[in-house]
């Protein structure tokens, strides 16, 4: 079953929770019936012989009783273990439901925009001709999937619509949505969305991006997350030029209860990074998050500074940094795509953090980022709270984004 079919046929998580609860309530209790051997009444002639036999019988009864008692205890333990397992499963299911609900809420503006554009496009459908495909391409571009991606999809759909002989509004809608979902799914093949950590020694994660995209906030949220998982975390304030950048990171450090390695204002960022790496090694930290400056007006200097930081990190920790995460502001739409191209061409970006998705209708920018740049989106920001920064799960995102379009189509 493909992603398109799984979105259509996705079962309700609430039903799964209810089923788990019913199974736990209907779990049959096991009753063990203890059987004791019948006692014999000794005769006068056999009194002396029977007496020790009675002692043996009592001993056997005691042993049997002890054995059954152990069996009952083991049965109760097994039942409790099964109950605990069901409870854990139910808790995990409820957590997944909460996460999906949070994703749905965070993508609300994007979904409304997609739904509005889709309804307008389908309402104007008359026949499958060149005007139809021009309108489709325009609709996709306005949905922030990018010109290159929109053109590619439109060309593919020309052949697909003819191949499936789709003529009615519902049939054409079905073909387009299935192609869109399948195209999205194909982008994720061999996509590495996992975070990578060093097996020995500190893991260094470098954050890059222009000013105002949420680098420092993202660092603060991830620091809180990993500290909550029991990791020892350090922060390095490598953005020494922007006014207030170091103070902002220090506020997050105080809030999270983690140390921030900082230098004097306008000091060499590479020296701060060096101090941060040495502190991480000396304190046996698990993770060092490094904030960096983001000034597009000095592209050459900025990229040279980043390369200098990476050289210093690699000199002290040869296999680091493990991640270079590019932070993008989803509200900037196509500008975010251009920033991603710039940084990818200038440094070894390993993944994307897409912030502020909850405040924009331009969440569709994820499609061209994955399609044109082949960069994995690793985290998405859905709000101001710490737990609003979530790992990017491609299928969950597709279910949330495209599911409403399928409902609109099925409701026609």
UniProtKB/TrEMBL annotation:
<keyword id="KW-0675">Receptor</keyword>
<keyword id="KW-0378">Hydrolase</keyword>
<dbReference type="GO" id="GO:0005737">
    <property type="term" value="C:cytoplasm"/>
</dbReference>
<dbReference type="InterPro" id="IPR003593">
    <property type="entry name" value="AAA+_ATPase"/>
</dbReference>
<dbReference type="GO" id="GO:0003924">
    <property type="term" value="F:GTPase activity"/>
</dbReference>
<dbReference type="InterPro" id="IPR027417">
    <property type="entry name" value="P-loop_NTPase"/>
</dbReference>
<keyword id="KW-0472">Membrane</keyword>
<comment type="subunit">
    <text>Part of the signal recognition particle protein translocation system, which is composed of SRP and FtsY.</text>
</comment>
<feature type="domain" description="Signal recognition particle SRP54 helical bundle">
    <location>
        <begin position="103"/>
        <end position="184"/>
    </location>
</feature>
<keyword id="KW-1003">Cell membrane</keyword>
<comment type="function">
    <text>Involved in targeting and insertion of nascent membrane proteins into the cytoplasmic membrane. Acts as a receptor for the complex formed by the signal recognition particle (SRP) and the ribosome-nascent chain (RNC).</text>
</comment>
<dbReference type="InterPro" id="IPR013822">
    <property type="entry name" value="Signal_recog_particl_SRP54_hlx"/>
</dbReference>
<dbReference type="GO" id="GO:0005047">
    <property type="term" value="F:signal recognition particle binding"/>
</dbReference>
<feature type="domain" description="AAA+ ATPase">
    <location>
        <begin position="201"/>
        <end position="381"/>
    </location>
</feature>
<protein>
    <recommendedName>
        <fullName>Signal recognition particle receptor FtsY</fullName>
        <ecNumber>3.6.5.4</ecNumber>
    </recommendedName>
</protein>
<feature type="compositionally biased region" description="Acidic residues">
    <location>
        <begin position="71"/>
        <end position="97"/>
    </location>
</feature>
<dbReference type="InterPro" id="IPR000897">
    <property type="entry name" value="SRP54_GTPase_dom"/>
</dbReference>
<feature type="binding site">
    <location>
        <begin position="355"/>
        <end position="358"/>
    </location>
    <ligand>
        <name>GTP</name>
    </ligand>
</feature>
<keyword id="KW-0342">GTP-binding</keyword>
<dbReference type="InterPro" id="IPR036225">
    <property type="entry name" value="SRP/SRP_N"/>
</dbReference>
<feature type="region of interest" description="Disordered">
    <location>
        <begin position="63"/>
        <end position="108"/>
    </location>
</feature>
<dbReference type="InterPro" id="IPR004390">
    <property type="entry name" value="SR_rcpt_FtsY"/>
</dbReference>
<dbReference type="InterPro" id="IPR042101">
    <property type="entry name" value="SRP54_N_sf"/>
</dbReference>
<dbReference type="GO" id="GO:0005886">
    <property type="term" value="C:plasma membrane"/>
</dbReference>
<comment type="similarity">
    <text>Belongs to the GTP-binding SRP family. FtsY subfamily.</text>
</comment>
<feature type="domain" description="SRP54-type proteins GTP-binding">
    <location>
        <begin position="202"/>
        <end position="403"/>
    </location>
</feature>
<dbReference type="GO" id="GO:0006614">
    <property type="term" value="P:SRP-dependent cotranslational protein targeting to membrane"/>
</dbReference>
<feature type="binding site">
    <location>
        <begin position="209"/>
        <end position="216"/>
    </location>
    <ligand>
        <name>GTP</name>
    </ligand>
</feature>
<dbReference type="Pfam" id="PF00448">
    <property type="entry name" value="SRP54"/>
</dbReference>
<dbReference type="Pfam" id="PF02881">
    <property type="entry name" value="SRP54_N"/>
</dbReference>
<dbReference type="GO" id="GO:0005525">
    <property type="term" value="F:GTP binding"/>
</dbReference>
<keyword id="KW-0963">Cytoplasm</keyword>
<keyword id="KW-0547">Nucleotide-binding</keyword>
<feature type="binding site">
    <location>
        <begin position="291"/>
        <end position="295"/>
    </location>
    <ligand>
        <name>GTP</name>
    </ligand>
</feature>
């Amino acid at each position: 079953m493909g992603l398109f079919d799984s979105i259509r046929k996705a079962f309700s998580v609430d039903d799964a929770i209810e089923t788990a609860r019913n199974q736990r309530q209907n779990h049959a209790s096991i009753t063990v019936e203890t059987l004791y051997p019948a006692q014999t009444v000794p005769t006068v002639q056999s009194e002396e012989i029977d007496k020790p036999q009675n002692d043996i019988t009592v001993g056997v009864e005691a042993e049997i009783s002890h054995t059954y008692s152990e069996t009952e205890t083991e049965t109760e333990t097994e039942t409790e273990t099964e109950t605990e397992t069901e409870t854990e499963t139910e808790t995990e299911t409820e957590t997944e439901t909460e996460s999906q609900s949070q994703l749905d809420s965070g993508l609300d503006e994007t979904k409304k925009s997609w739904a509005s554009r889709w309804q307008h496009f389908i309402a104007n459908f008359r026949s499958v001709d060149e005007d139809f495909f021009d309108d489709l391409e325009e609709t996709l571009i306005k949905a922030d999937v990018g010109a290159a991606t929109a053109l590619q999809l439109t060309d593919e759909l020309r052949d697909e619509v003819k191949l499936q002989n789709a003529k009615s509004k519902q049939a054409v809608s079905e073909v387009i949505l299935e192609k869109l979902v399948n195209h999205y799914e194909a982008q994720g093949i061999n996509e590495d969305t996992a975070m990578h950590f060093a097996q020995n020694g500190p893991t260094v994660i470098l954050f890059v991006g222009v000013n105002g995209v949420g680098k420092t906030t993202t660092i603060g949220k991830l620091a809180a997350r990993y500290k909550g998982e029991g990791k020892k975390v350090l922060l390095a304030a490598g953005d020494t030029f922007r006014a207030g950048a170091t103070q902002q990171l220090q506020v997050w450090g105080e809030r999270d209860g983690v140390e921030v390695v900082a230098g004097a204002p306008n000091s060499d960022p590479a020296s701060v990074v060096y101090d941060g790496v040495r502190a991480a090694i000396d304190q046996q930290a698990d993770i060092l998050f490094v904030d960096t400056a983001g000034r597009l007006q000095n592209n050459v200097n900025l990229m040279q500074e980043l390369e200098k930081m990476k050289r210093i990190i690699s000199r002290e920790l040869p296999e680091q940094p493990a991640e270079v995460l590019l932070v993008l502001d989803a509200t900037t739409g196509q500008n975010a795509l251009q920033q991603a191209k710039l940084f990818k061409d200038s440094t070894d970006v390993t993944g994307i953090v897409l912030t502020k998705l909850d405040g924009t209708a331009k969440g569709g920018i994820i499609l061209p980022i994955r399609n044109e740049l082949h960069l994995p989106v690793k985290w998405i920001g859905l709000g101001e709270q710490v737990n609003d920064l979530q790992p990017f799960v491609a299928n969950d995102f597709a279910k949330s984004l495209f599911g409403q379009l399928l409902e609109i189509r099925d409701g026609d």
